[in-house]
Automatic annotation (TrEMBL):
Cross-referenced PROSITE patterns: SAM_MT43_PR_SET, SET
Origin superkingdom: Eukaryota
Catalytic activity: L-lysyl(20)-[histone H4] + S-adenosyl-L-methionine = N(6)-methyl-L-lysyl(20)-[histone H4] + S-adenosyl-L-homocysteine + H(+)
Principal location: nucleus
MF GO annotations: histone H4K20 methyltransferase activity; histone H4K20 monomethyltransferase activity
Record-annotated SET domain positions: 90-211
Methyltransferase is among the record's keywords: yes
Protein name: [histone H4]-lysine(20) N-methyltransferase
EC number(s) from the headed UniProt entry: 2.1.1.361
Keywords in alphabetical order: Chromatin regulator, Chromosome, Methyltransferase, Nucleus, S-adenosyl-L-methionine, Transcription, Transcription regulation, Transferase
Region (Disordered): 1-48
Cellular component terms per the entry's GO annotation: nucleus; polytene chromosome
Top enzyme class: transferase
UniProt organism field: Caenorhabditis briggsae
Amino acid sequence: MKVATAKKPATGKKSRAVAAPSPSSSDVENATHNTPPPKKSSRAKKPVVASHKITEFFHVRRSTRKTGKQIKMEAHENLRDLVLNKSNEAILEIYLDAVKGRGIKTTVNFSKGDFVLEYIGNMMEYSEAKTVEEAYSHEEVGSYMYFFEHKNKKWCIDATAESPFKGRLINHSVLRPNLKTKVVEIDGRHHLIFVALREIEVGEELLYDYGDRSAETLANNPWLLNT
């Protein structure tokens, strides 16, 4: 009986793992020189700064100066209140003069340009006023009619009838007037007012030039030329 014997493996060349050749120093230097350096930004980065408004550091001073238009509007509103409320009637008093009769004195001071009083009466057109004036001449009543022109049209305020309004009692002076008349428009209507010509002190009589130089008027009122 044959016994099988194990065969020896065939002897062959053993395979070896071949190691990669290590780079030479010259190769390392070449690789180092061939690698491009990292690019540097040409702009320097600025630090981030939070923005602030200048009003956070300084108090804003707003101008309190008024424009010429504002000043004019305020002056007109003030005049409107004085005229429509007739408030100056209370600060003027009636007194009796031996020659001229009744007159008006002030109990307060007025500055040049101040509104003093309104001439209040019945406003009418010129043609109607001349008819009324003619009727007064026949009735022998004192006339308190003030004729004036406004915007190229003639008007008249008839204050002949007795009333509590003191403007009708202001006397005439050609030598020392302290008032002048002026026409102003308020709320679409025109008013005849008295304005201070100069500084007027407490106790002074209020006077203005009537402007009437007719022979008949001067004959009846000779004091018109010397007061």
